[in-house]
Specification:
Layout: E1 14-18, E2 30-33, E3 39-41, E4 51-53, E5 75-79, E6 82-87, E7 97-100, E8 106-108, E9 115-121, E10 130-140
Antiparallel strand pairs: 1-5, 2-3, 2-4, 4-5, 6-10, 7-8, 7-9, 9-10
Length: about 140
C-alpha cells in the first residue's frame, strides 16, 4: 500500500491582493487584477474575473457604518475557487452563468454578447441580495 505525503495540488481557496482604489463596500463583489497586479472591482464581462471578495473583506465589526470599506493599498481577500457568496446585480435564477456588472455585482451572462463567467448560481436571488455561487471561471463566446 502506498503512502502519500500531501495533496499534490494546491488546496488554497483564497488570495490576498492590494486594493487598486478606495471602495465603499467590497464584500461579495467580482474582482479583476489590474495591470499593476492590484485587486480592482470588475467593471464588465470584458475582462477575466479572478474571484469574489470575501464577505469579511474590508473594515468590519465596527459601529461606524463602514463595514466592507477598503482604501487603496489595503488587503483584499478574494475567493478564487469553490463556493461563496456574491452580491446580485439583477434577478438571478439557479443554474445561471454569472458575470459582472459595472459595479462588480454579478448578473446572468447574456448569451448574445458572451463574456467572462465568474461562476454558476447555486440558488436564485433578487438584485441586491447575496447569492451562493460555485466559482467556475471561463470565457463564453457570444452565441
Amino acid at each position: 500500500m502506498a503512502t502519500y505525503m500531501g495533496t499534490g495540488v494546491s488546496d488554497t481557496q483564497t488570495i490576498t491582493l492590494k486594493a487598486a482604489a478606495d471602495v465603499t463596500d467590497i464584500r461579495g463583489l467580482a474582482i479583476v487584477v489590474d495591470s499593476a497586479g492590484k485587486a480592482a472591482v470588475a467593471a464588465a464581462a470584458a475582462a477575466p474575473i479572478v474571484g469574489i471578495a470575501l464577505l469579511c473583506s474590508g473594515a468590519s465589526n465596527t459601529l461606524d457604518g463602514k463595514d466592507g470599506a477598503i482604501k487603496a493599498g489595503e488587503d483584499v481577500d478574494i475567493l478564487i475557487k469553490d463556493c461563496g457568496y456574491a452580491i446580485a446585480g439583477a434577478a438571478i435564477i439557479t443554474g445561471a452563468e454569472l458575470t459582472a456588472t459595472t459595479d462588480g455585482k454579478v448578473f446572468p451572462l447574456d448569451a448574445a454578447t458572451g463574456g467572462y463567467v465568474v461562476g454558476t448560481a447555486l440558488e436564485s436571488a433578487n438584485a441586491g441580495e447575496r447569492v451562493f455561487v460555485q466559482i467556475t471561471k471561463y470565457f463564453k463566446p457570444k452565441a
